[in-house]
Amino acid sequence: MTRRFRRSIFGLALFALVALYWSQSTVLDTTESNPSVDFEFPEIVNPQEPFEDLRRRYLTLISEANEYSVAHPPIRKRSWQDRVDHIHANALHHYYTLDKHEYRTALWEDISELTSSNLTATFYRIGSLAQAWATPSGPLYHNQELLGDVLTALRWLVQRHYNPSITRVGNWWDWQIGIPYQINDLVALFYNVMDADLRTSLTAASRYFIPEPIKTGANRVWTCKIIAVRGILDSNQTELDLGSQNLQDPDTILLDYVESGDGFYRDGSFIQHDTIPYHGGYGKNLFKGLADIIYLLHGSAWELKDKRIGHIYEWAVNSFMPIVWRGALFANLRGREISRKDGTDYHAADDVITGMLRLIQIAKDEKFVAKLKSWVKFNIASARPWHDYLDAAPGSLYRAAADIIHDKSVIPLEDLSETVWMKKSDRAFMLRSTYALALSMSSDHVSTYECLNHGNLKGWYTGSGMTLLYNDDLGQYNDGYWATADMYHVPGVTAHLRVRKPCSGSRYVSQDGRTYGSTSGQHASIGMKYLSWGRTVNATKSWFFLDNEIVCLGAGISGIGETHTTIDQRQILSQRRIYLDDIEMPHESTFNKTYSPHTLHTIRLQSNVEEASDIAYNVYHVSENLILRKDDRTGSWIDVNNGHVIQDTTPFQRKYVTLYIDHGDSPVNASYIYSIRPKPELIPHLRTFQVLSNTEAVQAVQSVDKRVTGAVFYGKAQVPDFLTASTACSITLTASETDGYVKVAIELPATPDEPAYFHFKQLAPYHLRSQVDGITVLSTDKTGIQLAMTRASVVLDFVLH
C-alpha cells in the first residue's frame, strides 16, 4: 500500500464520517451555521475594560471561528472548508464514543485507565469537542446537545479527578502544564455559556496545581502563559502580573543567551534537560509560546517591554530558520518526539511557522518581515503535497498564511546553499535547494539521546553520528520510520550489535567525547571523538560537506563484539531499482548480500518519487565486507513509546534498504571511507576528492579541483604538504572560482590559554586581506603562511598577491 493511498483512505474516512452525520441529521438538533464570525482586534487594549479586551484577544489566538471569509478566493474557501470538515469529523468521532451515562467510570473507554497522560488526553478530547462547537460551517457548531454533554463531562472531571483534594500521581507535566493549558482554552471558548461555578472550579483546580511559574525554558514559558491567561479569564490582576513579569525576571534567564545548561546559545543551539538539543521539542514550544504572549499582551498595561524580548527575532533567524527544510524540522533536533505517532517533522515545523507568522504580525523591521515571509512561503509551498500547513495553522493565522502563499510579490527562498554548525548542540546541517543533510553527534556536553516517560525507547544511537538525508522523498522519515527502522543500523553510526534494553544509556554524556567543526559558509569540516555508552565502541569520525557530496571518514575503530558502520537505511518502494557498480540488480522482494573487500563499490538507489534524483553511495578502499540488505520490517508505535497520550499497538510494515560496512567481531583500528551523493547527476566524475589523511590524529580531504580543503585535527598534527596545527581544531578552506579569494574558517574547542599555531602551505601565493583581532601573521613566504591565533573561532579572507 503506497503512502498516497494510505493518506487518501484516511481522507475518505473523514469525509464518510461527516456524510454519515448529515444522512442521520435526526441524531442531533443542529443550529444553522454562520459562514463568518469576525472578532474585533483593537490595536491598544481599552484601559477601562482590559480583561474583557484581552479575553477576546486570547479567543482569537485559539479559535477556529475568526478567519474564514466568503470574500476569499475560491481555492482558499475550499481549503478552509476542508479544514472545518476535519475539525468536525474528529469531534464527531469523539462525541459518538463519549460515555454519557450517569454512573460512568470514565469518559472514553480507550483511555479509562487512571494515568496522568490519560487524564490529559481526556481534557484534550473535550477540547476538540469545544473547538467544533465554536467553529462555524460544521454540524456541531453551537449545538446545544453537545454543549450540555460537554459541560456535564467537565463537571464530572473536575469533581472526580482534578481538584485540590486529589493527590497528584504520574507525570508532573500533565498536572501542571498539560491540563491547566487546556482548561484555559475551554474556559475561553465557553466563557459566555459556562456557569460561574464551573468556571471557578476549573480555574481553582488549575491554580492549586500550578500557583506560580516553575521550571526553565519552554516549561517556564508554558507556566507563565497559563498563569497570565488564567488571570485574564478570572479578571485577576495579581495573576496577570505574576505571569507577565516572571517572563521578564532577570533571575529566570529565560530571555537571555546562555553559556551552559538550558536555553538559547549564540551559535543557534537550543538545549533542554541540560544536555539535549531540543529545538524541535521544547525549543519550538518556547518560541511559539513567547510569540503568542508578546502578541496577546501588546498594547496593554502588561505589554512585555524588556529589551531582551528582541532576542526572539535573533532566535527566529539563527536558531529556527536553518533547521526547517521544505516544511520539515530535522528529526535530529526533536529528541524523544520522534517516537510519537502524531509528531512528524512537519508537525514540529508547523509550530515554528506559526511563531514566524506571529512575529510577522508584530515586527516593525520591513527587511526582517520580508525575510520571514520568503522563508514561510518556501516551507509551506515546498512541503506540498505531502503536508499542508494550512491544515494545521491556528484559525487566527490561516488568512495570514494563505495571503503569503498567494502573494506574487513574496519571492520564496531560493538558491539555498549553506552549511550550519551549532557547536553547543553538536549538530551540523548541509542545506541546498533540492536536498539537506542533518548530522547529530554527542560529546562531553551533549547526550547521545533521551528516553523519558517511556518515550523514545530505542533512540540509543540517534546522537552518535547519525546522518539523515532529506530530499524529494518528503515522507522518508515521516511514514512510520522510527517505529519500523532497525535502530542498531542508524545511518552514519558505528555501533556494536549487542542487544540493548529499552531506555538504556539515556542522557549518557561521554567525558572523553569531543566534537569539532568549522564552516566557510557553503562547505564544512566536522569531526567527533566517539566513545559509546558502555565503552563498547571507540572511533574517530568525520564528515566533510563539499559542493554536492558528503565525504565520511572513520579511523581507529575498536569494538567489543560485532561492530558495523551503517552508511544508510532508507525506506524504499518495492518496485524501485537498485544498482551496484552501475549494474541493475535483479528484482527481489528481500535479500541480504555480502560483497568482499574491493577498491571501490558504487551503489545507487532509485528515488521513491517519480522524476526525482537517485542517491549514490561510493565506498572506497573497502578492507572489510560490505553488506547490502533489503527487507520488510514490522513494528508499531508502542514499541518505541508506551507513555504518550496517543498509543497505537497496531503493527505495520515498511520496506527498507540498508547498506553497512561489517568491521567484524571486536575490530581493532578499523577504518572506512565513503561518500554520499544526494544528486549524482550533478557530479559527472567518479572521484571528486582525495583523502589527505585518515588517522586518529587528523582526518582531511581535498576536492580534486583543489578548491575545497577540509581538515579535523584531534591534537597537534600535520597533513604533509598541506597543513600543520598545534592543537585540536577544525579547518575549512574554500577558494573562490572567480575573484582569487580563499576563505579560511578555523575553530578551536574553546579560547586557548596559549596561542594556537598554524602553517598553511597551500596559501603561499596569498596574503591576509585585512588585520583581524586575535590573529597574528608570523610569516608569509614560498613555504606558506604561518599564523598564531588567540581566539576560539575565525573566518579569514586571503587574496592573491
From TrEMBL:
* Endpoints of the signal sequence: 1-23
Q: Where is the Polysaccharide lyase family 8 C-terminal domain?
A: 690-744
Alphabetized UniProt keyword annotations: Lyase, Signal
Annotated Pfam families: Lyase_8, Lyase_8_C, Lyase_8_N
Cellular component, GO annotation: extracellular region
Which family does the entry's similarity section mention? Belongs to the polysaccharide lyase 8 family.
- Please give the name of this protein: Chondroitin AC lyase
Natural source organism: Umbelopsis vinacea
